[in-house]
Amino acid sequence: MQVLDEVEVDRSKVIKEKASQPVTYEGVTIEPTLVLHGGRHGLVDHNLQHGAGYIVRAGGHSIYHPGDTVLLEEHYELKNIEILLLPICHHSRTLIDLAEILSPKYIIPMHYGTYEVNSRNRYWTYGDPEEVIGKMRHSERLLILEQGEVFRPH
User: Fold this and answer.
1) E strand or H helix at 48
2) Domains of the chain
3) Amino acid 28: pLDDT
4) In angstroms, rounded to a whole number, what is the distance separating the alpha carbons of residues 22 and 6?
C-alpha cells in the first residue's frame, strides 16, 4: 500500500480483491481469478502466491489477463472470453493450453521483450511469439502487437 500513498490514491476508493468475487462499476465488471506463479520449468513457486488474474467485461466485450500463473483447474470453468492476453515466458508455458481451453476470438501474447534477457532472468523474461504459433491449435487467432499499437475488437 506504500505505492498507493506515494501516488496519492484515496484509500476509500481501494477495493481489496478476492478471487471469484466480481466488482462492477459504471458498466465495467472486473472478475479476479486465482493465480499460482510459475517457477523454473513451469513448476509452481509457492513463495509467489500473491496476485490475481483479471477478467474485464464492458460494452459486450471481455478480456482476460491471467497474470503470472501456471495452468489451473479453475481455468476450465471460465466462460465467454473474447480476448486472451497470453503470457508466453518460460514460467507460464503451461498457459499455451489456455488458448485451446477458452477458445477466445483473439489471443495477444504478452510478458516478453520487457527486459534484456540474461542467464539469471531467462525463465521469466524470455518469450518469442513466433515460437508459440507452432504450439497452438488456433494460431490464426494470435495477434502479435508492436509496443504502443492499439487493437480494437470487431
Assistant:
1) none
2) 18-141 (3.60.15.10)
3) 96
4) 27
